[in-house]
UniProtKB/TrEMBL annotation:
Interacts with the CDC2 protein kinase to form a serine/threonine kinase holoenzyme complex also known as maturation promoting factor (MPF). The cyclin subunit imparts substrate specificity to the complex. Residues 235-358 form the Cyclin C-terminal domain. SMART domains: CYCLIN (SM00385), Cyclin_C (SM01332). GO terms for molecular function: cyclin-dependent protein serine/threonine kinase regulator activity. Residues 142-226, 242-327 form the Cyclin-like domain. This is B-like cyclin. Residues 51-71 are annotated as: Disordered. Coiled coil: none annotated. Keywords: Cell cycle, Cell division, Cyclin. GO terms for biological process: cell division; mitotic cell cycle phase transition. Residues 59-71 have a biased composition (Basic residues). Belongs to the cyclin family. Cyclin AB subfamily.
């Protein structure tokens, strides 16, 4: 009797409910949404409910809502006007760019770049040096580019290295046999300033084919630091170029890595030529932006009122520097120095070194803008 009382009586209705539950259990589970499918997450959620028993009126309402949403997405978005110089600094694009302090930071950097104690003499080869020529300096810089590539150093390290070399040569007469020693010792200091893991002294001795000893490198390092009065954190072309790129990207019709890498290529080419030593880093950076825009879009004027306001330079002020860098780009200057050219022929840098350029810049491009 007790067993009969505990038995559950199976009815036809219970059989139907059990069969329905079995069908639900056999339905395949929905595929997990991956990152690339996130834009369709909303539609996936709607399709998951289509199999459920939804009332016709609610389903119609959902369809109307989806239709309205699609209609809203189809509306054209009005193009925003290019931001002004002030708006670029204050736009919250990247917290690490320190937008609230950007203008103050770059005003301070401009004061540093015009400080005569932090600048090389524009004619130090004629006034100070007796045994070193502009060609020797170019060969040294070209070799330093290869060293930086060998040890995977930052480009900021390279710019600081060349800056230290020029400043030291502005203060001290040097024998040509010691020029390579000056180069590796300057790179050692710049690496300690910029890199997380700078190369060891022994590695730099090895890269010179052990021409110099560890003691000689350390001795030259101390001499450089004393001559520079330990003022090592100078603004370089790369420092200023990062800021100018942001304004140039806003006015470019086709901004991208080609423009950015082309600017870096032109900036490094300027390091090869002794005639660029006299220019401020900000003027070289502005000239690089001017020339990069011209190479990419030669039929469009490369300078704008926004770039002029932001950089503080008129096209006429950039004329001499632009023409020098353009000659470097075409190989009419420093054609035998190939390290930078080979570096930027690689796919890593979008092969910008082989981009064609008109042989001449129209003279009216280098005239002041008419407001």
């Amino acid at each position: 009797m007790a067993e009969k009382e505990n038995c559950i009586r199976v009815t036809r209705a219970m059989k139907r409910r059990a069969e329905a539950a079995a069908v639900v259990e056999q339905t395949p589970t929905k595929k997990r949404v991956v990152l690339g499918e996130l834009p369709y997450l909303q539609n996936a959620a709607v399709s998951a409910n289509e199999g459920s028993a939804v009332e016709p009126q609610k389903q119609k309402c959902r369809n109307r809502t989806r239709t309205r949403t699609r209609a809203k997405k189809a509306l054209p978005i009005p193009e925003a006007a290019p931001p002004t110089a002030q708006e670029v600094d204050t736009a919250p694009l990247d917290p690490q760019m320190c937008e609230p302090y950007a203008r103050d930071i770059y005003e301070y950097l401009h004061k540093l770049e015009v400080d005569p104690n932090r600048r090389p003499l524009p004619d130090y080869l004629a006034k100070v040096q007796k045994d070193i020529t502009a060609n020797m300096r170019g060969v040294l810089v070209d070799w330093l580019v290869e060293v930086a590539e060998e040890y995977k150093l930052l480009s900021d390290t390279l710019y600081l290295t060349v800056s230290y070399v020029d400043r030291f040569l502005s203060l001290n007469s040097l024998n040509r046999k010691m020029l390579q020693l000056l180069g590796v010792s300057s790179m050692l200091i710049a690496s300690k300033y910029e890199e997380i893991t700078p190369p060891h002294v022994e590695e730099l001795c090895y890269i010179t084919d052990n021409t110099y000893t560890k003691e000689e490198v350390c001795k030259m390092e101390a001499d450089i630091l004393k001559s520079l009065n330990f003022d090592l954190g100078n603004p370089t072309i790369k420092t200023i170029l990062r800021r100018f790129n942001r304004v140039a990207d806003e006015s470019n019709k086709d901004p991208g890595l080609h423009f950015e890498f082309l600017g870096y290529y032109l900036a490094e080419l300027s390091l090869l030529d002794y005639n660029c030593v006299k220019f401020l880093p900000s003027l070289v950076a502005a000239s690089v932006i001017f020339l990069a825009r011209f190479i990419i879009q030669p039929k469009m004027h490369p300078w704008t009122s926004s770039l002029q306001q932001y950089s503080g330079y008129k096209p006429s002020e950039l004329r001499e520097c632009v023409l020098i860098i353009h000659d470097l780009y075409l190989g009419r200057r420093g054609g035998s120095l190939q390290a930078i050219r080979e570096k930027y022929k690689r796919h890593k840098f979008k092969c910008v070194a082989v981009m064609p350029s008109p042989p001449e810049i129209p003279p009216y491009y280098l005239e002041d803008l008419v407001e």
